[in-house]
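Case 313 in the screening queue. Each case pairs one protein sequence with one candidate compound; here the compound is fe (ii) ion. For every case the pipeline is the same: read the inputs, emit a complex structure as tokens, and attach any notable structural observations.

Predict complex for case 313.
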Amino acid sequence: MNRTEESGYRSLFKQWDSRSWVRSKPRRNGAFASGLHYFSPDLCPLLAHPEVRAAPAQVREEILVHSLYVYLEFTVQLELGPVNETCLLLHSPDFCPWLPAAMKEDLLRIYTDEAAHAEMSHTLLATVRDHTGVEPVLHRPYFLQELSRLYAAELPVYRPLVKLFFSIVSETLITGSLTKLPKDPSVQQAVRELAADHATDEGLHHAYFRRLFKSLWPKMPAPLQTKIGALLPEIILAFLRPDEAAMTRTLAGYPEIFEDPARVVAETVELPRVRGSLVDNAAPTLRMLAQEGVFSDPVISAAFDKHGLRQHA
Ligand SMILES: [Fe+2]
Ligand SMILES: [Fe+2]
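Case 313 output:
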């Protein structure tokens, strides 16, 4: 264990009071302008499909509203679920007791940030629903289904670790929604500002979880590294794969236009643009794993190859 590095932790949150969204910035829930989208067409996988692009303009705009809902609901469920459950777990004196006190304290700030992201995302969703009259489709986010599946496959003793790595992956992924949405001038201001404020907070969280990973990984015995490492590609894909169930339900709302929504969705996720953006979004996490030597384990490396991720690291 590298005690020097850990005891030398300087809080990443020293300016939290003046920089955190919930501590220092207003709610992003402003007026909506006619003529602007509710989500970026470039970030909507469905709009990559020619049959969806050929749909009437009104339907395309509603599909973008649904894309916003899926993104916001993903945020609510992720922050309140695995990420904040991980903050609670790590904050316990019994779990990773080697974490410096200052790192344990910062978990309370991350927890607060995430709860606020959930509340503000939910409030924006409700405001857009009231303004547009478009009802969200009922769905259980894909990443939660995947977490349940990975959990069920493990003995209870490993489950906290699965959840911890689920959070490390989600906090170190940089998705297009966070980085590109704020820059798209065709999107409603409130949506862009919400994404920008969230991205700023997540920049710090990213640095924190990266630091945590660098300390944690070398402490894990090799067989445990192999076991958890082989799950990482599935965890990455749980976050980055488009939510096919939500997309299918969205299209099913327009039966006169989309006779076979499942076929259109199955074709959409195979499109090079959709697959390419998934791989792009995985890159920062893959780089972090490579820098810590994770891929020197042949079992882990093979698992990434199997899921089509490793060669892009
Ligand atoms: Fe967040
Ligand atoms: Fe976060």
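Case 313 observations:
- Residues 19 and 25 are 8 Å apart (CA to CA).
- The chain has one domain: 42-312.
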